[in-house]
Specification:
The complex is a heterodimer of chains A (about 120) and B (about 170). Chain A is α+β, with helices and mostly antiparallel strands and about 120 residues long. Chain A contains two helices and seven strands. The relative contact order of chain B is 0.15.
Chain lengths: ~120, ~170
């Protein structure tokens, strides 16, 4: 273990920890949260997660089959998916902006972001 | 004409790498993140870089991924391309750190290779889902590459030390 090894380890650790800090704690509290569901890079639906009483099951059709996402208490998870490894289901509930559930075989990404506007700008 | 000894050693390394690749896929890891794995087959990749050159190591990597995926039934599936991308990028990075950059021990090279492996897999996954949000997994993947790279690096370190001291390192390749 040389000195340069330690520098490399330090850099990787720094990148990793700062990445986690940035994605988890850089948001203000009580921001309205929206789940953006995309298949093959195309956004097919937005789900507003701010209502804590909302319970919904969303069907997402991908190339592999139909995945089901469940919304409950302002959180979302992948309830069922036809992928072989089921990483997306094992991710569990996500509720903070920036967090993501991805089902790579079925080309689905559910990403949470902190905005309620369905359009960012309007050009005229 | 490649010496026969090199061909046979390479073949044995490919067999060992394939076996490690398959055995590793049988371990269920607690992290539900695509791409977290022990990377034991990278030990063989790095050994190939130590014994031979970059081209031979690439051959070992390509063949072990093809063979491993054929044997476990995931050939040309999504995971196959993720593995391929990660392993090839990892081999390039390890060759860079081993041959070009000085001052890194085998452990450092191994950690760099593990981080590169995860990066390559994530980049391939990003191509598949066509969504940059998947890079959300990058920080935690980088952090897990530290212990896995350390473990494979340590194993390789002792392996090479043992091979050197028993005089077998030179006998494996001409």
């Amino acid at each position: 273990m040389t000195k340069r090894d330690m520098i490399l380890i330090f850099i990787i650790a720094l990148l990793g920890v700062s990445g986690i800090v940035i994605t988890t704690w850089s948001r203000e509290a009580n921001q309205p949260i929206m789940a953006e569901i995309s298949v093959n890079g195309n956004i097919i639906d937005w789900i507003d997660l701010t209502d804590p009483n909302k319970e919904q099951i969303i069907k997402i059709d991908g190339p592999l089959g139909t995945s089901l996402a469940e919304v409950r208490s302002g959180e979302v998870r992948m309830y069922n998916s036809p992928c072989p490894d089921e990483y997306c289901m094992k991710t569990g509930w996500i509720s903070k902006p920036g967090q993501t559930i991805a089902c790579v075989p079925n080309r689905i990404v559910i990403k949470l972001s902190a905005q309620t506007n369905f359009v960012d700008t309007v050009s005229q | 004409m490649i010496p026969v000894k090199n061909i046979t050693t390479t073949a044995v390394l490919i067999a060992a790498a394939t076996a490690l690749h398959i055995i590793e896929s049988l371990f269920p890891l607690p992290f539900p993140i695509p791409g977290v794995k022990l990377g034991l087959a990278n030990i063989v990749t790095l050994l190939g870089l130590v014994l031979f050159d970059f081209k031979t190591s690439m051959q070992i990597v390509l063949l072990r991924i093809i063979l491993g995926s054929l044997l476990s039934g995931t050939f040309l599936a999504t995971g196959f391309f993720l593995s391929l991308s990660g392993a090839m990028f990892s081999t390039c990075v390890m060759a860079l750190f081993l041959k070009l950059f000085s001052g890194f021990s085998l452990i450092g090279v191994s950690i760099a290779g593990a981080a590169a492996h995860n990066l390559g897999q994530l980049a391939a996954a990003a191509v598949f889902v066509e969504h940059a949000g998947i890079f959300f997994y990058l920080p935690i993947l980088l952090l897990t590459s530290l212990p896995t790279g350390l473990i494979t690096g340590l194993i390789l370190h002792f392996l090479v030390k043992h091979l050197k001291s028993s005089g077998q390192l030179d006998r494996l390749s001409t």
